[in-house]
Amino acid sequence: MIGYVAVGLLGLLTLSIPVGIVLFLLGIGVDTFFSPFPLIRGLGNMVWSASNSATLIAIPFFVLLGEILVRSGIAARTYAALDRWVSWLPGGLVHANVATATMFSATSGSSVATAATVATVAMPQAEKLGYDPKLFSGAIAAGGTLGIMIPPSINLIVYGFLTQSSIPQLFLAGLIPGLGLAVAFMIITAIICSIRPELGGGRRTFPLGQMLRALIDLGPIIVLFALIVGSIYMGWATPTEAAAVGVAGALVIAAAFGGITRNMIVESVLGTVKITSMIMLIVIGASFLNFTLASAGLGRELESFLSGLGLTPLYTILVIVLLYIVLGFFIETLSLMVVTIPIIVPLVVELGYDPIWFGILMIVMIEMALITPPVGLNLYVVQGARKSGSLNEVMLGAIPYVLMMLAMAAALIAFPSIALWLPQVLG
Fold first, then answer.
1. What does pTM read for this prediction?
2. Which residue intervals define the domain TRAP C4-dicarboxylate transport system permease DctM subunit in the entry (predicted)?
3. Hey, which of 99, 212, 296, 400 would disulfide with 34, CB 3.0 to 4.6 Å?
4. 8 Å CB contact between 378 and 111
5. What is the pLDDT of residue 13?
6. What torsion do the CA atoms of 367, 370, 372, 373 make, to the nearest 10 degrees?
C-alpha cells in the first residue's frame, strides 16, 4: 500500500493539482480501495474536527505579522541596518542576507515569507554591487528556511498540534539549533569567500556613527521577538494570544515609522487570507488522508517494515532521516510533515526518543527540503525575485547550505541536548 500511495501522490503532484486537493483525493482513494470502512461518510465531521482548534488560530496571526513587517517597510530597514554591521566579513552583503533572515524568522514563523522578504530587498543590491548570483541567491534561500526553526514557527505549531506536544517547549528547543544554523551559514559563506574572494563582492565598512544609528532600525524586530516569545515563557500568554499581541505590536511599530496606509492594510489582510487558506487546506486534507491510512493499516505496515529490518534505534532514526531526505525532493514541506507525523512519531517515541527532540530533527529535514529541487519552495521564491538568470544558479548556490543542514542533523542525533537543553532548563 505504501508504494501505491507514494506513486499516487507523485502522480497527482506532477499534474499541478493543488497539494490540499491531492491529499483529499488520495484519502478518498485509500478509503475506496484499502479501508474496510466507508470513512467518506464522516468527511464533514472530520474536516470540522481537524480545523476546530484554538492552537491553529496562531497561524493567521503569525502570517499577518509577517505581512505587516514586509509591507510597512520595516524589513527593508532591518536589512539596511544589518548591512552596516556584517558587510565587513568575507562575503560582504551575503552575511546581511543570512542575518536579516534570522531576525525576520524571529517574528515571521514562515520560511517562504522570510525568503520572499529578504529576496525582495536584497536582489537589487546584488546586481548593483557585482555579487556572484549563485552564492547570493543560495544564501537567501537557505536563510529563509530559518523561519520554520527559530520561534515563533508555524511548522512547530502544526507539529505540536498533531503530536499533542508542548508548543512553548518546541519553541525553546528550536532556538539553539536555529541560531546554530545561522552561524553555520555565515561561517561557510566566509570560508567560501576567503577561498574565492570574487564570489563575495566587495567587503564594506561604515563609520561607527552610522553603525550605531542603524541599531534604531533593529529595535522593532528585537522588541517584537521579546514581546512574543517573552509573553509565552513568562506565562502571560498562550502562543495564540502571543501571536495576536505580536500583530498589535507590529501595527504600533509600523505606525511609528509611518508605514501604515490603507493599501498596506488591505494587501496584508489579503495576503494573510491566501496563505492561511493554503495552509489550512493542506492540514485538513492531510488529517483526512492520515485517518484513512491509519484505518487501512499503513501504520502497522510501516512499523512491521522498520522492525523487520532488525535495526538498532539509532540506525532506525538514520533510515527515517534518509526517508525524509528522499521524500523532501518531491513533496511540499508542510504536506510532508502532516502526512508523516502521525505514522513516524509514534514509532520514534516507541524507540525511546523524545518527541520534542525529534520535532526539531524533523524541522531540519523540512528546511533541507525547502532548498532541494525539484519541489524546494524557497528556490522558486528567490528565483521569482530575480530579474535574470536561471533556477539552476539558485540550486547550485544552495548546496553549501544543504551540507550545513546535514551537519546540524548529525549533531542533533549525536548530541540531543542541543535541542533539549533549553526546554529542560527553562521548561
1. 0.81
2. 7-417
3. 296
4. yes
5. 62
6. 160
Contact (CB, 8 A) for 86 and 104: no
> What pLDDT shows up at residue 19?
67
Query: Looking at residue 299, what is its pLDDT?
Result: 63
pLDDT value, residue 241: 85
The Cα 350–Cα 345 span in angstroms is: 9
Nearest to 403 by CA among 230, 257, 189: 189
Residue ranges of domains in the chain: 2-426
C-alpha cell at 36: 474496510
| Cis amide linkage into residue 374, ω under 30° from 0 | yes
Nearest to 192 by CA among 26, 404, 426, 424: 404
pLDDT score for 34 = 65
At 41 the pLDDT is: 64
Pair 77, 257: CB distance under 8 Å: yes
Give the C-alpha separation, 182 to 40, whole Å.
Answer: 45
Q: Which three cell numbers stand for residue 133?
A: 548570483
